[in-house]
Amino acid sequence: MKVRPINELFRGELSVINMGLDGFAENLEHEGVAVARVAWKPPAGGNPKLVEMLSRLEAGASVDIAAANEEASRRILVGKPTLVGIGKAIEVVPGMKKQMLLHSGPPIIWERMGGPMRGAVIGGLLYEGLAGSREEAEALAASGEIEFSPCHHHSAVGPMAGIVTASMPVWILENRAFGNRAYCTLNEGLGKVLRYGAFSPEVIAKLSWMENELAPILGKALAAHGEIDMKSLIAQVLQMGDEGHNRNRAGTSLFIRELAPTLVTLEEDREKIAKVLRFLNGNDHFFLNLSMPSCKCTVDAAAGVAGSSVIVAMARNGTDFGIRVSGLGERWFTGPASMVDGLYLPGFTAADAAPDIGDSTITETCGIGGFAMAAAPAIVKFVGGSPEDALNVTRRMYEITLKENDTYQIPALDFRGTPTAIDLLKIEETGILPAINTGIAHKEPGVGMVGAGLAKPPQECFDDALEAFVAKYAQGGNP
Questions:
Q1: Domain boundary among 293, 325, 345
Q2: Parallel, antiparallel, or unpaired: how do β-strands 320-325 and 333-336 relate?
Q3: Do 209 and 347 belong to one domain?
Q4: Which residues, other chains included, contact 375 with Cβ-Cβ below 8 Å and sequence gap of 6+?
Q5: Predicted structure pTM score
Q6: Which letter does DSSP use for residue 4 in this model?
């Protein structure tokens, strides 16, 4: 490249690259100078502590982080989630007990639970017959006789409050590439339902019907049909306008299409079969409780890779937001659950909302959900924003992920693969937080769903995870 003497610089036409304040570019553009603006900012937002920690890793690590991340990413990409059956939680979920309630998010005790979680716990105890009234359920929950445990500690996931009790039917998903399994309850629908903290008699009645009629019939149909390749199904729904988290109309439709021919051949009462089909048809979110364990068994295979900074779990219990990192074992890093910015059902406002809650962020962890919003522009009618916002959300997520999915692709981005394998180090370097779209529960127990929207995770859980990662893998350990 020819270098011009400084005294000749302003004699010809200038082309300027601006990497500083926008004001510099605006002044030059006012004078008719062509300016290319570069959206540059210092690593880690210029935070000295974060910069120092990232620099220590760059200067020398005790393991090959790039190779570890390549392996963790590979495991996610080759995963093959497969629906293999339905079972009762007490019989199939690892470590499940009669006096145990599984919940969403990182560990939490009754005294710290918010309204939606408390409401769902009350409903779960009523459903199991362990309590006969709200008052009895609250007393039992506070007594220490009930063991509360995160779904994630039992290879399970649960939307919103995520409550799983011993008698509840659960989907059984197996990752055929690695043999590990994941579990999730069946979806109740929207509105006044247990996972949003409702526990009225009609909520309990629906759960009982799901246990005694819906699950057995679906189980028979699945056994007659044979296992279902969920990876293929999720790939299809992204082509049809779903993103696999808050928009599941295509997924539910495909699932009905898959099972309906077998359902109608079962030797069951015709009205029972019709009721099952009506329920599935009227519940656009039925597929969510299939996409979640599909993602769980996929990402679980990437956990425990020494030196990997890939995030393998993101979850919220309504009080805390927590993450797990592949190379840091089963430890949770938490921060306060944030409020959701979104749209509200008639009669409700932001004043009614509880903080962010649920395990459904496992979908984002696997590269769909909020990370695939560009595939589902109609999602903005549910969570707010514009179709262009949905595209931009996905574009930003490429900056904090390691791979583009070779199966899950986005038509609106020329069939580019979804951003997959969230990298803790990239989050810290760029300051970009994972995008999450989610439902909103009422802050008081017993009310239910009030809206849906977008949520931002707390920065501190990622900062704390980085500090632990540096302590474990930077040369010399703790400074």
A1: 293
A2: antiparallel
A3: no
A4: 238, 239, 241, 242, 243, 394, 410, 411, 412, 418
A5: 0.91
A6: P
CA distance 237 to 291: 10
DSSP codes joined into one string, 266-304: SSS-HHHHHHHHHHHHT-TTTTHHHHHHHHHHHHHTTTT
Question: 163 and 99 in one domain?
Answer: yes
DSSP secondary structure code for residue 155 in this structure = T
Amino acid at 302: A
Cα–Cα distance, 397 to 415 (Å, whole number): 16
Counted domains in the chain: 3
- Residue whose token pair is 């539910």: 252
Render each residue's pLDDT in the chain as its tens digit; 479 residues.
455 565 665 566 767 777 666 666 677 677 677 777 666 566 777 788 898 999 999 888 899 999 999 999 999 999 999 999 999 999 999 999 999 999 999 999 999 999 999 999 999 999 999 999 999 999 999 999 999 999 999 999 999 999 999 999 999 999 999 999 999 999 999 889 999 999 999 999 999 999 999 999 999 999 999 999 999 999 999 999 999 999 999 999 999 999 999 999 999 999 999 999 999 999 999 999 999 999 999 999 999 999 999 999 999 999 999 999 999 999 999 999 999 998 999 999 999 999 999 999 999 999 999 999 999 998 888 777 888 989 999 999 999 999 999 999 999 999 999 999 999 999 999 999 999 999 999 999 989 899 999 999 999 999 999 999 999 999 765 54
Query: What's the rounded Cα separation, in Å, for the pair 172 and 254?
Result: 19
Are 433 and 457 found together in one domain? yes
Structural domain boundaries enclosing 24: 6-40
The answer to whether the CB of 136 falls within 8 A of the CB of 150 is no
CA torsion angle 271 275 278 283 (round to 10): -170
Cα torsion 59, 63, 69, 70: sign = positive
Quick one: tokens of 252? 């539910």
Amino acid at position 47, single letter: N
* The two structure tokens encoding residue 394: 């996905």
> Does residue 16 sit in helix, strand or coil?
strand
The amino acid sitting at 338 is S
User: Which residue type does 133 have?
Assistant: S
Pick from 189, 163, 149, 216: nearest CA to 357: 163
Whether residue 479 lies inside any domain: the answer is: no
What one-character DSSP code corresponds to residue 111?
G
CATH of the domain at 134: 3.90.1710.10
- Identify the CA nearest to 248 among candidates 281, 214, 213: 281
Give the span between the Cα atoms of 296 and 438, in whole angstroms: 17
